């Protein structure tokens, strides 16, 4: 039976693009090696028509399909389960930039285009595609869309959902919906693209998208600030927004423990600030003004923050090299944790006004439960999004720390976020890892609507089964 | 039977809030008097719980429900059909601002809050709710959401869909979905709010929303430009976006005939430009910079446009009074048309890069079909959205012009927009007026997905029946 399926799939995409056995390994395991599944085959279609033919075949034969982009999910969203029944549909070969329209400020790209390729193409056309996340070299636009990717420029430009005007989607039954509209305004009926964005491949296969482009900033200003409390950081953010408006592009918090960790990882003696502070903020402003004008208002505003006693110290990047250097500190925190091993990773969000209380109370609870934990707390605090990642004390092994405290810390952090009307997954999505947790944090009504939408679009439950939607006690 | 329904409804909302007979007239007719229906009753619940109870009763008794806000729909979206079977659910009494959070830049408002009240509340808190449409005095937030309202600040701030973080919705069966989340980032499951935004009350009753607030600009710069071609206008737009970035808040085109019409309507001899041009542009920049700094870059950029030969003339508003005065010209065009009578109103959008071709070719076709037509063309051209509203020649009665040319002009304009991958309803929605037209401009696949979503959420088809979704030949 399986052989028969394989030969049909080979007839559609060619033998070179149907991988079996050991050749599937890189596709059935996530890049961190945490989630391991099995697949009937990995199929790599080369165009939308081939995606459609594969989906039609799988639909008619009841074969589950797991769509996959760069396979950079942190939550198991992009790999199959262990049954070996599913086909992994790798979109890698749909990697063409179809069209760029500079005046309309749009770009039509296929799902398998990497984020870096999309960004570079926009840049070469003198414009900007603003999504900025750590995995940009390997993640793909299709994955960015299906997970509604976030990152370090959300503050100014929004999440991936906000960066797209139209989609081309292959439905579970193989039909193609051409919604590749490049319009800023279109109220002629339901806006269907939002069904597919952020639904992690459970409702349809995104094969191409019309992305929004933005004026490329002429000036970029970056500073590292030392602040004494999270509350002072938030007040600084409020002041910057008032003075600089939406030019405030990133506002990233870094705790003292996070800074200590990353400096050691980078082999540096100190940050650009020379001394450590309880909290640090990496702030970026970008502007279409001249660099000179932008520098002036940036420095004036930071001076005002200092005069008000909100910040204790500030280092301003003097050139592009320093801009990159400052950002490296922020970007390497995640890797520093991975290499140190033994951190509990929580990706939560709360309303901005609740950030100080969230951090204060949650830190206290975690330290009470797991004394001497290093409070590695950082993230996109301008969006209310904190990577709250408690790290083992130096004198404890990763295994003993995670075994002893892992689950309870996750519960403490997630509960604290929910108590403040927050989210247990601000930007990383659900996948399999957080699926069942939704039973605790979403209402029955909300979960039921989700399942009704799922059944409407994927009645046979073939698309990325077991992801996002938790099984309901009273099976919907 | 009907009496029994009425007494049940009275038991829920009180006798004063169940209107019958002649008291329903203002609710069953749209404000222009174009669409006239009948209702079993008009019910005005005072809170979400009452909405839920009314919906539950209607669901259990198979009573259709037509939700209504300010009843300012141009397309019949907010009034019932002539069967007299439906209840009109007026959300007017849900008019409370529940909460404002300045640091989080959010405001929780109920569906019946008027747009002007929401804007004013934001302003009094030193912040900005940016939606700006002509009907702001009477339209309500619930209607703005269910129609994804647009208007004159979309260029900078987006459509209504982009201005909301969370919703509270009563489902057709009366269950309440509390999705009032005030988070910039939340990827914990499907983003259900987008189902309800823009679906014109066919999937659920929006009872409250978390709206985004923005930094209030310190500076506003407005100019009226004279340009010789639509192409030059578009090139000017490109230059402004490069130089001023997202501070370009509005870019409104006004044709010579539109200018002549509105000046006569306002009883003015001339515009601030003194002479007429083939095209005029009202441009607004807003900025958190000081007025002095903003003025400098605004003037410099307009000078650059003049040096490049893109604009022939420019008048810059010198003070707030002039800002209002310049805007009045743009805002009164619609009323000038209504009073003149005999215009065919088309609300289309195309990619920005296609605007010049669209205007040129469509004007030629309309003039060929209906000679001496006045080409009243204006709108949010920075969004690719044109109100293309051919007006009768002065020597023809409104009736004879509309009878003779109305339908054919609509077909010409809509077809031209579709030929350029545009939309036949950029911001006004579908309602009943454009419902069947969707059969011609949307694919079967797209219409089928719409119906599947409708059936998933409103299986008895009780919510605003006959709106938005056209009957499919092969009934889905």
From TrEMBL, chains A, B:
<dbReference type="Pfam" id="PF02913">
    <property type="entry name" value="FAD-oxidase_C"/>
</dbReference>
<dbReference type="GO" id="GO:0022904">
    <property type="term" value="P:respiratory electron transport chain"/>
</dbReference>
<dbReference type="InterPro" id="IPR004113">
    <property type="entry name" value="FAD-bd_oxidored_4_C"/>
</dbReference>
<dbReference type="Pfam" id="PF01565">
    <property type="entry name" value="FAD_binding_4"/>
</dbReference>
<dbReference type="GO" id="GO:0003824">
    <property type="term" value="F:catalytic activity"/>
</dbReference>
<feature type="domain" description="FAD-binding PCMH-type">
    <location>
        <begin position="35"/>
        <end position="216"/>
    </location>
</feature>
<comment type="similarity">
    <text>Belongs to the FAD-binding oxidoreductase/transferase type 4 family.</text>
</comment>
<dbReference type="InterPro" id="IPR016167">
    <property type="entry name" value="FAD-bd_PCMH_sub1"/>
</dbReference>
<protein>
    <submittedName>
        <fullName>Hydroxyacid dehydrogenase</fullName>
    </submittedName>
</protein>
<dbReference type="InterPro" id="IPR006094">
    <property type="entry name" value="Oxid_FAD_bind_N"/>
</dbReference>
<dbReference type="InterPro" id="IPR036318">
    <property type="entry name" value="FAD-bd_PCMH-like_sf"/>
</dbReference>
<dbReference type="InterPro" id="IPR051264">
    <property type="entry name" value="FAD-oxidored/transferase_4"/>
</dbReference>
<keyword id="KW-0274">FAD</keyword>
<keyword id="KW-0285">Flavoprotein</keyword>
<dbReference type="InterPro" id="IPR016166">
    <property type="entry name" value="FAD-bd_PCMH"/>
</dbReference>
<dbReference type="GO" id="GO:0071949">
    <property type="term" value="F:FAD binding"/>
</dbReference>
<dbReference type="InterPro" id="IPR016169">
    <property type="entry name" value="FAD-bd_PCMH_sub2"/>
</dbReference>
<dbReference type="InterPro" id="IPR016171">
    <property type="entry name" value="Vanillyl_alc_oxidase_C-sub2"/>
</dbReference>
<dbReference type="InterPro" id="IPR016164">
    <property type="entry name" value="FAD-linked_Oxase-like_C"/>
</dbReference>
